[in-house]
Each structure stands twice: as structure tokens, then as C-alpha cells.
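*** Protein under study ***
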Amino acid sequence: MKHKAGSKLRQWREAQRPPMTREQLGERLGCKGLQIYRWEEGGQVASAANIHHLQTLGICTLEDWFLSAERAA
């Protein structure tokens, strides 16, 4: 099931000008683009360090990782 954080992460990444690729965001966070894909699709939850980094960037909160994207919409 997709979580709210994945939806917010994708929206933020695509809203950048020019849009940021998963690989570019992964480089910024110290992980691979495949990892970003898994977060966006709800297949995995980011590590505590990456959740903190995403929260610092204003992309999503800790709570977003535990809310369903459908339920939060």
C-alpha cells in the first residue's frame, strides 16, 4: 500500500525546476534512484536518517510514512 510520504516525495521531486530525477534525489540523500522508487511506490520505508533529511528539506514528515496515501487524500 502506498503511503502519504511516497506521494509527497514524488510531487516534490517533480515540482522542482527542472524536475529532479530519482537518481538526482538519491545522490543528494546518499542512496540509489531505485531506493527512491521503492519509497514512492510504498514498497519500503526510508531509514530514520533519510526520513529526518526529508523532513529537514520540508518534503514530508515522520507521520507521513505511516499514513495511507488514499486515506490522507
User: Anything to note?
Assistant: The chain has a mean pLDDT of 91. The CA atoms of residues 16 and 29 lie 16 Å apart. Residues 4-72 form a domain with the 434 Repressor (Amino-terminal Domain) fold (CATH 1.10.260).
